[in-house]
Each structure stands twice: as C-alpha cells, then as structure tokens.
Fold:
Amino acid sequence: MNKFNEAKPGSRVGEWAPYSYNIGTGCLNGCKYCYARDIAVKTEMIADKSKWTEEQVNPAKVKIEETVDDMVMFPTMHDITDNNLTTYMATLRNILNARNRVLIVSKPRMTCIQSICDSFAAYKDSILFRFTIGSLNERVCKFWEPGAPRPQERVAALKYAFDAGFQTSVSAEPMLEGYREAIALYETLTPTITESIWFGKMDDIDDRVDMAEPANEKAAQFIREFQSDANIKLLYDHLKDLPKVQWKKSLRRVVGI
Ligand code: SF4
Structure:
C-alpha cells in the first residue's frame, strides 16, 4: 500500500510540510542547483546526473488512501508537466478525497495550473499552491533553470490560481539575483499571494552546480557576491516587518533568527 513520506524535521521539505509524495522522478526543468537530482543519484533512483531530465512516472503511485493530520507536499522530486498531468491529477484527487491538505509546489506551467484549478475548484480550501520564482529576469532564469517555464508564465500562473480563489504562496528559494531584485520580486508578486513568500539563498553551490563549466563558475561567483552576508542582511532589514514574508533556513542562519 502506498504511504506518504515523512519529512525529517528541519529538512528542506520539513520546513514546509511534515509529509510528502511523488509519482515519479526526474525533472524537465533541469535546474543547475537541483537538490533532488543529488538525492536521486545517492539513492540510486537514477544511474547518474545526466539522466535527471528524463521524467519517469510510476502509475502504481496513483492509488493512495492514507489520511494524515497535516500538510502533504506533492510533488518534491519532479514537477507537474504535460507528460505527467493526467497521472498527477488522478493522484491528487485520491489524496484530497482522503481528506488531506496538499501543498502543490511547482515551477508552474500555465496549462497544468489551469487544468488543476479548473478541475479542483471544489477543493480550494484543501490546496495551497507554492510557485518557485527566484527572479523575474528571463535570461537569468533560463541560465539557472533551462527547462523551466519563463518567469512571466509562472507569474501568470500565480495570478490564475489567485483569481480562481485558491490559496497561493511563492518560493524565492533559491533567489537567483541580489537583494534589490528580491525586493522587486516581493513588490511584484505580493498582490497575488494570499499566504506567504519565502526567501532563501542558493546554498551548497559548489557541491550542486557543475563547476567544470566555466559559465557556471562565473554565474556562481555573481550569486556569492549578490548573496553575501552583508547583502542578505540588507534584504532582511528591508522586508522583515512586511506581511507575508518568510525566511528559509539558508537565510535565517545569516541573520541569526
Ligand atoms: S524544479 Fe526542483 S526538482 Fe526540478 S530540476 Fe529544478 S530544483 Fe530539481
């Protein structure tokens, strides 16, 4: 029988939800800083990093009847794409029918979000969307997240879910630029956020990003400078008293909270 995964307290997933679920592995987005790819290699879900952008969907995961007492984050090890949407929605329906609350985390594709919003209107109170938008700059997003939707599409998907009456939130972890751009992100997105916007640094860059590529090393150096302790403190001082702002562990460590 399929069961939810229990997140370790304080882990990346555990910061947001005590339970998680996936219907497969592999992610078309191919983010250069991906944490899930490293887990997939370590746990031998995939043979090596080069296989990560091949989506593998497991239809046997659709049937899930467990009921838990807190939020389920779904997905964590893949995204929602046209390739897996039908399986994703069938699984989501089962999770919701078992009276669970679901945190849907995605770099959202408009067609997928429209389908979910249109099909699950009756479950609005049990769904919280969290869309990852680390920058509004198309070129920067394309570099770090080459297979993901453009930021403009993600912003439009956020607005679609908000206008449809769903609970909405944003993850700006990792931020892909500096503190000024992060503040602009807050100001642009906050009108379509009902819950929170989470800011976090790009952590463990040297371990996660392929530094054999000179362009990656150069871009990582920008990130290190943009997200220096001094700049993170400037960001924190600017936003700390504003509503909806939340800080991920990667950033809390720097400002000492
Ligand atoms: S969207 Fe998430 S799982 Fe997919 S490649 Fe990017 S970081 Fe990895």
